[in-house]
Protein backbone atom coordinates (compact mmCIF):
# COMPACT_ATOMS: atom_id res chain seq x y z
CA UNK A 1 0.00 0.00 0.00
CA UNK A 2 1.24 3.47 -0.90
CA UNK A 3 2.64 5.38 2.09
CA UNK A 4 0.47 8.45 1.33
CA UNK A 5 -2.60 6.26 1.15
CA UNK A 6 -1.73 4.65 4.49
CA UNK A 7 -1.34 8.11 6.07
CA UNK A 8 -4.69 9.25 4.64
CA UNK A 9 -6.34 6.11 6.00
CA UNK A 10 -4.82 6.77 9.43
CA UNK A 11 -5.85 10.45 9.40
CA UNK A 12 -9.40 9.50 8.41
CA UNK A 13 -9.53 6.85 11.15
CA UNK A 14 -8.59 9.44 13.76
CA UNK A 15 -10.98 12.02 12.25
CA UNK A 16 -13.85 9.52 12.39
CA UNK A 17 -12.96 8.68 16.00
CA UNK A 18 -12.82 12.43 16.68
CA UNK A 19 -16.38 12.87 15.46
CA UNK A 20 -17.59 10.28 17.95
CA UNK A 21 -15.35 11.69 20.70
CA UNK A 22 -16.59 15.25 20.24
CA UNK A 23 -20.23 14.24 19.96
CA UNK A 24 -19.96 11.97 22.97
CA UNK A 25 -17.81 14.02 25.32
CA UNK A 26 -18.44 17.63 24.37
CA UNK A 27 -22.02 17.50 23.15
CA UNK A 28 -23.52 14.87 25.44
CA UNK A 29 -21.44 14.17 28.55
CA UNK A 30 -20.37 17.77 29.18
CA UNK A 31 -23.70 18.98 27.73
CA UNK A 32 -22.07 21.90 25.91
CA UNK A 33 -24.62 21.45 23.13
CA UNK A 34 -27.97 21.21 25.00
CA UNK A 35 -29.81 20.49 21.75
CA UNK A 36 -28.64 16.87 22.04
CA UNK A 37 -30.39 16.44 25.37
CA UNK A 38 -33.54 18.04 23.92
CA UNK A 39 -33.46 15.53 21.08
CA UNK A 40 -33.12 12.64 23.55
CA UNK A 41 -35.96 14.11 25.63
CA UNK A 42 -38.19 14.36 22.58
CA UNK A 43 -37.50 10.78 21.50
CA UNK A 44 -37.13 8.91 24.80
CA UNK A 45 -38.99 11.20 27.21
CA UNK A 46 -38.16 14.01 29.61
CA UNK A 47 -37.83 11.95 32.79
CA UNK A 48 -34.41 10.45 32.19
CA UNK A 49 -33.15 12.58 29.29
CA UNK A 50 -30.03 13.89 31.12
CA UNK A 51 -28.95 10.41 32.22
CA UNK A 52 -29.74 8.80 28.86
CA UNK A 53 -27.92 11.57 26.99
CA UNK A 54 -24.81 10.98 29.07
CA UNK A 55 -25.12 7.22 28.58
CA UNK A 56 -25.31 7.74 24.82
CA UNK A 57 -22.29 10.05 25.09
CA UNK A 58 -20.35 7.42 27.00
CA UNK A 59 -21.26 4.85 24.34
CA UNK A 60 -19.91 7.20 21.69
CA UNK A 61 -16.65 7.48 23.64
CA UNK A 62 -16.38 3.69 23.71
CA UNK A 63 -16.95 3.66 19.95
CA UNK A 64 -14.17 6.23 19.45
CA UNK A 65 -11.80 4.03 21.47
CA UNK A 66 -12.85 1.01 19.44
CA UNK A 67 -12.08 2.85 16.19
CA UNK A 68 -8.60 3.84 17.37
CA UNK A 69 -7.91 0.31 18.65
CA UNK A 70 -8.14 -1.08 15.08
CA UNK A 71 -9.79 -4.23 16.45
CA UNK A 72 -12.52 -5.87 14.36
CA UNK A 73 -12.49 -2.95 11.94
CA UNK A 74 -15.20 -4.30 9.64
CA UNK A 75 -17.60 -4.86 12.51
CA UNK A 76 -16.71 -1.43 13.86
CA UNK A 77 -17.39 0.25 10.51
CA UNK A 78 -20.73 -1.51 10.11
CA UNK A 79 -21.69 -0.70 13.70
CA UNK A 80 -21.07 2.98 12.97
CA UNK A 81 -23.03 2.85 9.73
CA UNK A 82 -26.02 1.18 11.37
CA UNK A 83 -25.96 3.59 14.31
CA UNK A 84 -25.77 6.66 12.06
CA UNK A 85 -28.61 5.40 9.87
CA UNK A 86 -30.81 4.55 12.86
CA UNK A 87 -30.07 7.76 14.79
CA UNK A 88 -30.68 9.95 11.76
CA UNK A 89 -33.85 8.13 10.70
CA UNK A 90 -35.34 8.47 14.18
CA UNK A 91 -34.33 12.13 14.44
CA UNK A 92 -35.62 12.82 10.90
CA UNK A 93 -39.07 11.57 11.94
CA UNK A 94 -39.34 12.65 15.59
CA UNK A 95 -37.14 15.74 16.00
CA UNK A 96 -36.25 17.37 12.65
CA UNK A 97 -36.73 20.85 14.10
CA UNK A 98 -33.99 20.21 16.69
CA UNK A 99 -31.35 19.08 14.20
CA UNK A 100 -28.53 21.48 13.40
CA UNK A 101 -29.30 21.46 9.68
CA UNK A 102 -32.88 20.18 9.88
CA UNK A 103 -33.63 17.40 7.43
CA UNK A 104 -30.46 18.39 5.55
CA UNK A 105 -28.63 16.54 8.34
CA UNK A 106 -29.30 13.40 6.31
CA UNK A 107 -26.81 14.63 3.71
CA UNK A 108 -24.13 15.00 6.39
CA UNK A 109 -24.99 11.52 7.68
CA UNK A 110 -24.65 10.01 4.21
CA UNK A 111 -21.32 11.74 3.72
CA UNK A 112 -20.07 10.42 7.07
CA UNK A 113 -21.28 6.92 6.18
CA UNK A 114 -19.46 7.11 2.85
CA UNK A 115 -16.25 8.16 4.60
CA UNK A 116 -16.51 5.36 7.16
CA UNK A 117 -17.28 2.78 4.47
CA UNK A 118 -14.64 4.04 2.08
CA UNK A 119 -11.97 4.26 4.72
CA UNK A 120 -12.62 0.68 5.79
CA UNK A 121 -12.89 -0.92 2.38
CA UNK A 122 -10.44 1.18 0.37
CA UNK A 123 -7.75 0.65 2.98
CA UNK A 124 -7.68 -3.13 2.77
CA UNK A 125 -7.51 -5.82 0.18
CA UNK A 126 -10.37 -7.69 1.82
CA UNK A 127 -13.44 -8.40 -0.35
CA UNK A 128 -16.23 -5.82 -0.39
CA UNK A 129 -18.78 -7.46 1.86
CA UNK A 130 -20.01 -6.30 5.27
CA UNK A 131 -18.21 -8.70 7.59
UniProtKB/TrEMBL annotation:
It comes from the Bacteria. The keyword Transcription does not apply. The keyword Thylakoid does not apply. Keywords: Membrane, Transmembrane, Transmembrane helix. The chain crosses the membrane at residues 12-31, 51-68, 75-94, 100-118. It holds the Pfam family DoxX_3. This is DoxX-like family protein. It comes from Spirosoma liriopis.
Amino acid sequence: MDNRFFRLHKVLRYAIAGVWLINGLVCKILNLVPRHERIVARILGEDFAPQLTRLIGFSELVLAIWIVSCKYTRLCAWTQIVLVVLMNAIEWVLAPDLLLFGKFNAVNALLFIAIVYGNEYASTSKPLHPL
